[in-house]
Input
Amino acid sequence: GAVVSQHPSWVICKSGTSVKIECRSLDFQATTMFWYRQFPKQSLMLMATSNEGSKATYEQGVEKDKFLINHASLTLSTLTVTSAHPEDSSFYICSAAPPGRETQYFGPGTRLLVL
Amino acid sequence: GESVGLHLPTLSVQEGDNSIINCAYSNSASDYFIWYKQESGKGPQFIIDIRSNMDKRQGQRVTVLLNKTVKHLSLQIAATQPGDSAVYFCAENWGQGAQKLVFGQGTRLTINP
Output
């Protein structure tokens, strides 16, 4: 149990385009999901908390207009990187915790390369 | 700001030996701690967790120790196997419920045959 998936697993795009990444909880409902970013050989940094039916909560320094988050259902959150630039190239990972539990389970990640 | 840190960025052990990965945390209010394993190109995988009202918890070949006095967390892996090679992160939960997780810098564990 507690399986989280992401799609796509990797994406290459041109600078200036937008990219959407999906995060799904497969066997549980999640009112809250989390989006992290990880640069090579670095730790995970929380970008934002995605709340079903309400606005996401962004961490300090994360541009909400650049990283659009939509949590339209209890099993799906999407992260859209708008007007992507090479510096946005990174490994994006989502997580979610089953109801009543604190443990966050992570998706397999999405590798984004902006050319 | 407060953060979770690790003493050693890399660790190499012989296959079959035991390994210990350490982590220091600074937020005395943290009440829940998790160890994750991350293989190259993959998302973190849950290994074991511990609450602040405990000082030891055991799983299959893994043990987590928590010393709240010195704000120290460790992960012990017994009889290491090649598949244990990965980066290990400790993370602390700053509040009740699935709220903000703060990750340590990570330790790369290499198991030598």
